Amino acid sequence: MNKLVIGVNTAMFDGLDTDVAFSTIHQAGFRYVELAYNQGYVGDLSPDLFSENNARHIRELLEKYQLRSQALGATMNMGSEDAVAQFTQRIRFAQLIGATWINLCVGKRADRQRIVANLRELAPIARDHQCVICLENGGDPNYDVFALAQDGFALLEEVGSSAVAFNVDAGNIVSLCPDKDAIAEAIVMLPGARHCHLKDLEHRDGEIFFTPMGQGELNYLPMLEALAAHAIPCSLEIPLRMHRQRDSYPQRAAVPVDPAVSLEVLIQSREKLEKWLGYSL
């Protein structure tokens, strides 16, 4: 059986310096990182984030904290008129920091035709940069063009490129499609996946909050076995500053989360994963 490669998505450090995020991930015992540059889920995204200067800074931090970048979180509206230009910047940046998998929720059902056309145009650009565009099933109506497995496989068929695959997120199914078995639906997606987000969660008064792995409502054991069988790398995505409201839309807290809290959540999550998997990450 393949050993899972599991890193950490930086969404939990929203509003904090990247040095703090990487230092905390290193302290928690992880070796891989996924930068969270996601429209609508973290703070304002300056175009400078995707510059060569920032890529150089990220590479320096990766070396400083003995981390590797395997994925980039790059959610954006793929149905916008300038989506190809914007996402091409993200592809170039991903290659500069050594990230292969570019994960993104892509947009609304109403924009499906334009989304498919843009992905067809971007696929060869991603391939030329040794990257794979990983479509993530959405967690709120702004990203409902891919909600369930059948939506995703239809998109893959229409785009028709090996440079486009899935980033599976069972937690997003809980909020956007609450009547579905999130883990079972996520497992159905795995044959089309090249990357996966792992997040656990709990309901409080109808809203969704994120927890350390194993302390929420999702039973990941069968999914971890399937992920290993398909050799799909993962990131822990635990966006502690954000929760989902009753209508599934995200709400960010006014201030960032204390890095000490994030450190403890990551350590608890790593220990639970290692117990489940039977080996060290």
List keywords for this structure.
Xyl_isomerase-like_sf, alpha/beta, two-stranded antiparallel ribbon, TIM Barrel, 281 residues
Helix-strand topology string = EHEHEHEHEHEHHEEEHEEEH
What separation lies between the terminal Cα atoms?
15 Å
CATH class: Alpha Beta
Total discrete domains = 1
User: Which regions contain 5 or more consecutive residues with pLDDT less than 50?
Assistant: none
Principal-axis shape: globular
How would you write the strand order of the largest sheet?
1-2-3-4-5-6-7-10
**Largest sheet entry:** 8 strands, parallel, barrel
pLDDT average, as an integer? 96
Helix/strand structural class: alpha/beta
The assigned CATH architecture is Alpha-Beta Barrel
The residue fraction in helices comes out at 25-40%
CA-based gyration radius: 17 Å
Strand proportion, as a percent range, falls in 15-25%
Classified in CATH, the superfamily is Divalent-metal-dependent TIM barrel enzymes
How many separate helices? 9
| Count of DSSP strands | 12
According to CATH, what is the topology?
A: TIM Barrel
Organism: Rouxiella aceris
GO molecular function: isomerase activity
Keywords: Isomerase
Pfam families: AP_endonuc_2
